[in-house]
Specification:
554 residues, alpha/beta, Glutaconate Coenzyme A-transferase, 2 domains, eight-stranded mixed sheet, 20 helices, 31% helix, transferase activity
């Protein structure tokens, strides 16, 4: 028997909300900034699922501040679904009782406060996701009812220009609008004509010119002046022992000084090794300023970006053969597409971490910080859905001695997942531990699982100042743990090393020291850097790179 039901309840509900908000919305969908709180009160209901655009770079900060001004007696128990919660206002909403439940990917500067709020019951945590995982759930079971986004400019009809920092905006808008949700945008400026249309007006319900430009963080800028000799030693090992060994062309560099050091010695040590044209030709990463020397030296064919980087706008515009730019000449970043490329198309991910346990599991979480993962796990894993072949992917898979136990005689490749750390990190905290702090965090925050960033079975190589552990060549867990002990230095894990066992690992090339690789440690110094200061980067860019003020000392 056919059941009678209405099939347009979402659209009907949206019409009612927009009718309530109509008095605040003028021509071109424009709303006066002083009416923004009233607008939000008209379109948001208690228990709604709400997205405030904010990743680790640009932030819809004006709209977040306005949502914080609603009366929690009228609007409460919101379920926030958003990439990151780096602003104090994101957490203040939970403090006031406006929001209650949180699904996110990265905590950033609010990581300790997230953990505290979970312990105190102010946040009901859904899950800590990766970016791509959360984006996927926007189209499944976490679709926002209302999304508060940000853009550089809007025109008089409500079209948006997200430009250099497009980042998460397309995926948020598409998930929200095509499920009958409401999209509200803050923009830095309303203009007559946009450089290009990134989000069409038909997908936007209201536009507010905010009192100041949205907040944006230059998260991927590293001053070459702070690169140490130890970073350079690790970078030399990475280039000779991994990049050169596997001829890795398609890769991502995580954030940190190790990867900055690698980028800065590509035109020097990398060329000496004959790797130009053999490695780093196709990359997925933000426009790192420390990549400028390698780009200028002709190392890179293509870079696709998750987001932009302050100061790199004109440099990217002038290098459109390398970066993905629009017809207007500005960068078109897109976090969803970059993460997809990172998950399926890369041959290698290399990045740092705070802790690695004796099995090779790693995490950036500590006992009282819910930092989240961002995009690292999507790139720092072996994508089981991959079907295309590259030489480096195939070679890494061929070196896995127990592949036969898993899939019989079927050949298969494997993503290189490299963790690079100094054996002791900030404040002399050991990088290698018996048990990750993530276990304690899971207990404190009442999580079902410890928040592991990269699981041990995905990690293929660990680099420290002591050498490289080639974990993909280890036939079983005992050998794998011995290789980890060999690179763990004077940590408690490293002090358990058996010299005779380590000698056997060196002979089997499961562990290699710098000397085994033919690397002269005395050459690991700043003379090897293609740029030694921010000013050098500006000069090498031909004056196109314009560093943020805090990175200038001239």
């Amino acid at each position: 028997m056919k059941t009678e039901r209405k099939w347009d309840t979402l659209a009907s509900d949206t019409r009612q909300r927009m009718e309530a908000a109509a008095r605040y919305i003028g021509p071109g969908k424009q709303v006066k900034k002083e009416d923004t709180v009233a607008l939000l009160k008209s379109v948001i209901r208690s228990f709604d699922r709400v997205n405030i655009e904010g990743n680790n770079q640009k932030q819809a900060d004006f709209l977040a501040d306005c949502l914080l001004q609603v009366d929690p007696a009228e609007i409460n128990n919101l379920h926030m679904v958003q990439s990151c919660v780096p602003l104090a206002s994101h957490l203040d909403m939970f403090e006031k009782g406006i929001a209650k439940r949180l699904d996110f990917a990265f905590g950033g500067p609010q990581a300790a406060r997230v953990a505290k709020f979970i312990r105190e019951g102010k946040i009901e945590l859904g899950a800590i996701h990766t970016y791509l995982e959360l984006f996927g759930r926007y189209f499944l079971d976490l679709t926002p009812r209302v999304s508060l986004i940000c853009a550089y400019e809007a025109d008089r009809e409500g079209n948006l220009y997200t430009g250099f920092n497009t980042e998460d905006t397309p995926v948020i808008v598409e998930a929200t609008k095509f499920r009958q949700g409401i999209v509200i945008a803050q923009v830095n400026k309303i203009v007559d004509k946009l450089p290009r249309v990134d989000i069409p007006a038909g997908w936007v319900d209201a536009v507010i010119e905010s009192p100041k430009p949205f907040f944006i963080e230059p998260l991927f800028t590293r001053d070459p002046g702070l690169v140490t000799d130890n970073h350079i030693l690790l970078a030399m090992m990475a280039l000779k022992g991994i990049y050169g060994e596997y001829k890795v062309k398609r890769l991502n560099h995580g954030i940190g000084f190790l990867t900055s050091a690698i980028e800065l010695i590509l035109p020097t040590y990398g060329e000496e090794l004959g790797l130009k044209g053999e490695c780093c030709t196709h990359m997925v990463l933000n426009p790192h300023p420390t990549m400028i020397p390698a780009i200028e030296a002709g190392w890179v064919d293509t870079i696709h970006c998750f987001g932009g980087e302050l100061g790199m706008e004109e440099y990217v515009r002038a290098r459109s053969d390398v970066f993905f730019t629009g017809p207007d000449g500005s960068l078109r970043s897109n976090r969803a597409f970059a993460q997809t490329a990172g998950h399926y198309a890369l041959d290698m991910f290399i990045g740092g971490t705070l802790q690695i346990d004796k099995f090779g599991n790693s995490s950036t979480a500590t006992a009282n910080r819910v930092a989240g993962f961002g995009g690292a796990p999507n790139m720092g894993c072996d994508s089981k859905g991959r079907r295309h072949v590259t030489d480096s992917w195939l070679k890494c898979g061929q070196e896995v001695p127990n592949m036969h136990d898993l899939i019989g005689d079927m050949p298969r490749g494997k993503r290189l997942v490299v963790q690079g750390v100094e054996t002791f990190g900030e404040a002399r905290a050991p990088s290698f531990v018996d048990k990750l702090d993530a276990w304690k965090l899971a207990e404190n925050a009442k999580l079902d699982l410890p928040p592991v960033m990269i699981y041990g079975d995905d990690v293929t190589h660990i680099i420290t100042e002591d050498g490289i552990a080639y974990l993909n060549r280890a036939p079983n867990m005992d050998v794998r743990m011995a290789a980890i002990r060999a690179v763990a230095g004077y940590t408690e894990i490293g002090l358990a090393e058996d010299p005779a066992e380590t000698k056997r690992l060196r002979e089997a090339k499961i562990f290699q020291t710098p000397e085994d690789l033919g690397i002269d440690r005395s050459r690991a110094n700043r003379d090897l850097l293609a740029a030694r200061s921010m000013r050098d980067l500006v000069d090498i860019s031909g004056g196109l790179y314009n560093p943020p003020t805090r990175f200038r000392n001239w």
